[in-house]
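INTERNAL TRANSFER SHEET
From: sequence group
To: structure group
Subject: Glycosyl hydrolase

Please process the attached sequence and return the structure record in the designated field. Keep the field labels unchanged so the import script can parse them.
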Amino acid sequence: MRDIIMYQSSGEDELFVEKSTAELPQPAAEAVTVTVEIDAGQTYQEMDGFGASFTDSAAYLIHQVLDEAQRTEVMSKLFHAQEGIGLSFLRNPMGASDYARSVYSYNDLPEQETDPSLERFSIAHDEADIIPLLQQALKLNPEIKLMASPWSAPGWMKTSGSMIAGQLKPENYRVYADYFVRYIQAFAAHGLPIYAVTVQNEPLYEPHHYPSMLMLPEEQREFIQRELKPSFRKHGLNTKIFCYDHNWDRPDYPLTVLEQAEAEVDGVAWHWYGGAPAAQSEVLAAYPDTEVHFTEGSGGEWIPPFEQAFSNVMRTGIEILRNHSKSFVLWNMALDEQNGPAVPGFGKSTCRGVVTVNQQTRELTYTLDYYALAHFSKVIRPRALRLGTTASHEQLRSVAFRNRDGSVAVVLFNDGEAEETVAVKLQGEEVLTFSMAPKSAVSLKLSEMQV
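Return from structure group:
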């Protein structure tokens, strides 16, 4: 008999609740409507982890608005593997993003000035809120991996002269590569190793109301090949380089980069605001030695609460993993009651954080994104290996992993409109049968298996 841990979400009143499998009613065999088969002999990607981003806004809310007791609670619930949900992958904006209280880089200069030797480079801004929280997170979970993504190069390096819009000037490719190196070295000095960087957040999107930088695939390829990777080698950095960092609807972008720069690129990063997760597999099929990472997806007011929004994270998260991603990263770790703060001039924000910190009342609440992430991160641990799964009914979405301790994690989502009686089989052995309401999620952790 296997030990089984079960978590279930079936609505706003039941979010990620641990269930005793011993108390579950045992349906008759003929009552089973869906069978999920787990094949431990079929293996795919190894997970790096699940998480979100400590944007300037998120870090400020958690580090300055919450009191010490609240901060201790939320950090434990986010990152501790036993007392919380064990998040293990964090994406940090390199400088300001759309969710920052001001527009800043690590080398801001007066108009018309330049600093090709980066003498005025400083990460002092991040030392206030972001770095202390990253250090605390690493203490709670030493397996955390940190990645970094710029929304823009410093304005003086660009055609616009600003962090808003514009492109990187070719003559500044080398100094911008040095900027990445200085960032990685500065974080390492704080005990924060940078596991990976992306070259540019959403390089095909050039908004004029927050930091952005247009970077065409040919430009990105040249920057990586000519300057970024050589600079990493020169300074002995093993930080991985991921290209693209944008939506599923343009797989031609990473394919163009990889066509000539495959040797210098470690992975492709994806967002969910256009296209479908199958794009991840399309690019992987063409370049099978290149890692797949999902680095940003935000919930928000454009997806009606509750069921549709929770379902979106569960459904899409499972498909992201089934399409070979080694990470699943949502957007802001925290936002306030106005879905901010956002950079001045941003306008109305509609995004949703993993937690909400009310700046007026200082109330801390955990959003449905927290509970949806929990369904994955609590049972699928770092370096887990994805196993093959098939379901006899396409509306029952499934993904399974074998953890390093030998346990098997299974995440299921009933995407249909009817209740299903689900039988889970591992290597042909039926391990559990239970009912799943429409749009409900179940996560299982099965005790060590022999392989």
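Handover comment: Residues 292 and 325 are 5 Å apart (CA to CA). The chain has two domains: 4-45+386-446, 48-379.
Transfer complete.
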